[in-house]
Design goal:
Layout (H helix, E strand, L loop, with lengths): L4 H8 L17 E4 L3 H11 L3 E6 L8 E5 L7 E4 L14 E4 L3 H13 L4 E6 L6 E6 L5 E6 L22 H6 L18
Parallel strand pairs: 1-4, 5-8
Antiparallel strand pairs: 2-3, 3-4, 6-7, 7-8
């Protein structure tokens, strides 16, 4: 199905029903199938700084399973060693991890490059206006480290498209910013000249 402008407007008009008997508060965790659970666990721990909470051997889950955390939650990402092939990203487009400061996005870029991680995009996307670096894990899963995601305002207000400022480098995101987004870096040495 193609989503033309009329279909996009129809989708945008969908409303949350009244009386839903529960309220989802956050994404709890994501579980990824990987080809080599040890190799992937090393990437998430040694490159992205996750901590391991628990590990299942093959006898509990075929291929083994690793539970990893980046917050007080027991796990935010888990890996199951059952993938036969590299990810084709046909089901999940990408997974994103927020950081507290813009400086951290710049540091993440340098860290990922130093580790030889393939970076596929950097800068600011459109809707949401977050500044990010996007990259691939060892199985080809598309990941993002971001800062500055717009917050939905009172009454469901979202930033209008005429305020979006897509850029293709982190440096461009610093100078071409949407109204109200403070792109000041604490550590100016992170900027590539």
């Amino acid at each position: 199905m193609n989503v033309d402008a009329a279909k996009a407007a129809e989708i945008a008009a969908l409303k949350t029903p009244n009386g839903t008997p529960f309220a989802i508060q956050k994404i709890g965790h994501v579980v990824l199938n990987v080809r080599d659970v040890e190799r992937s666990a090393k990437f998430y721990v040694e490159t992205l700084g996750f901590a391991i909470s628990d590990v299942y051997p093959d006898t509990m889950v075929p291929g083994g399973m690793v539970f990893m955390r980046f917050s007080p939650d027991h796990h935010g990402v888990a890996l199951v060693g059952s993938a036969k092939d590299e990810s084709k990203r046909s089901e999940m487009h990408h997974m994103a991890f927020g950081v507290a400061t813009l400086d951290e996005v710049f540091r993440a870029r340098a860290h990922l490059e130093k580790a030889g991680v393939p970076i596929v995009y950097e800068g600011r996307r459109r809707a949401g206006c977050q500044i990010a670096v996007e990259f691939l894990d060892p199985d080809g899963h598309h990941l993002e480290i971001y800062w500055g995601l717009d917050q939905v305002g009172h009454g469901g207000y979202v930033r209008p498209p005429n305020e979006w400022r897509q850029t293709k480098t982190l440096e461009a995101a610093l100078v071409d910013f949407p109204p109200g987004q403070d792109t000041s870096l604490f550590d100016q040495s992170l900027i590539r000249r």
